Amino acid sequence: MPIGMTAAPNASKPLRIVGPTTDEPCDVCGGPTFERNCKVICLRCGYTRDCSDP
Questions:
Q1: DSSP letter string over 27-51?
Q2: The domain containing residue 48 runs over which residues?
Q3: 10-residue mean pLDDT series, the chain (54 residues)
């Protein structure tokens, strides 16, 4: 395991949104999403879609 990384994320801390949120719902669960480095990430289920995906 790389130095500085934990085995499991701390579930008591809320996710910090790094990119702007989108108006587009998640393709899998319909939850809210945000953009980060050409990726759209779901805040509810964690599904990730790349900008090169159709």
A1: TTT---EEEETTEEEETTT--EEET
A2: 19-54
A3: 54 57 89 89 92 78
Q: What pLDDT is stored for residue 2 in this prediction?
A: 56
- 14: DSSP letter: P
β-bridge partners, 40: 35, 49
Domain assignment present for residue 24? The answer is yes
- Which two tokens mark 4? 């500085």
The pLDDT of residue 23: 86
With respect to residue 14, please indicate whether it lies within any of the assigned structural domains.
Answer: no
For the record, the structure tokens of 17 come out as 């949104």
Q: Considering its fold, how many domains does the chain have in total?
A: 1
